[in-house]
Specification:
The protein has a 4-stranded antiparallel sheet with strand order 4-1-6-7, with no helix packed on it. A 4-stranded antiparallel sheet has the order 3-2-5-8, with no helix packed on it. With 161 residues, it is an alpha+beta fold. The protein is elongated, with a radius of gyration of 41 Å. It is 16% helix and 36% strand.
Length: 161
C-alpha cells in the first residue's frame, strides 16, 4: 500500500514539473535567451580627467509646524492680596477652584477645537477689588472689574473661528 502511494505522489510531482516546463517554454516563445553583443568603436585619445575628492554637503531642512486650530485660553485675575478663583478648565463646563491665590494670577490652557465654540468662565473674589479677563489667542474676549469684596465674573461663549 505504501508503495502505491509513493508511486502516485511521484507521478503527480512529474506532472507538475512537466506543466511548469511547458509554461516556461510558452512564455519564452520557445526561444532561448540571446546574449547581446557590444561593439567597441575606437580607443580613447586622451586620459580621463582626474577627479577631485568627493564632498559631502549637509543641509538641515526645517519642518513646517503644523497649524493648530486649538483654543488657547488665558485667564487673568488682577488686584492685590489673595483671591478665590473658579474657572472652566477644559471648555466643557468642568470647573476648577483654587483658594488663596496671590494676585495677580494667570492661567493658560489649550483646549481641543471640537467645532463648537466653548464657554469660558472665570470668577474671582478677593480682599479688595479684582478684575478678571479672558483672552483667546491673545485677544481679550471678556473682562469685568468688581467692587471691593465682591465677585468679578467673566463668562461667555467664544465666537467661532
Amino acid at each position: 500500500m505504501a508503495d502505491r502511494q509513493l508511486i502516485g505522489r511521484i507521478a503527480i510531482a512529474g506532472i507538475v514539473v512537466a506543466a511548469l516546463a511547458t509554461c516556461v517554454v510558452l512564455l519564452n516563445g520557445g526561444e532561448e535567451p540571446r546574449a547581446e553583443t557590444v561593439a567597441v568603436v575606437g580607443e580613447p585619445t586622451e586620459a580621463a580627467p582626474s577627479r577631485g575628492p568627493d564632498r559631502t554637503i549637509t543641509r538641515t531642512l526645517s519642518q513646517p509646524r503644523p497649524v493648530s486650530n486649538d483654543w488657547r485660553i488665558a485667564y487673568e485675575l488682577a488686584g492685590t492680596g489673595t483671591a478665590t478663583v473658579v474657572y472652566d478648565s477644559n471648555g466643557l463646563g468642568l470647573v476648577h477652584q483654587e483658594l488663596q491665590v496671590t494676585l495677580p494670577w494667570r492661567k493658560e490652557l489649550t483646549w481641543k477645537n471640537t467645532g463648537t465654540p466653548p464657554t469660558v468662565q472665570l470668577m474671582g473674589q478677593g480682599e479688595g477689588a479684582v478684575e478678571c479677563r479672558v483672552a483667546v489667542g491673545g485677544a481679550v474676549v471678556t473682562s469685568e472689574k468688581s467692587a471691593p469684596g465682591e465677585v468679578a465674573t467673566c463668562a461667555g461663549r467664544l465666537a467661532p473661528s
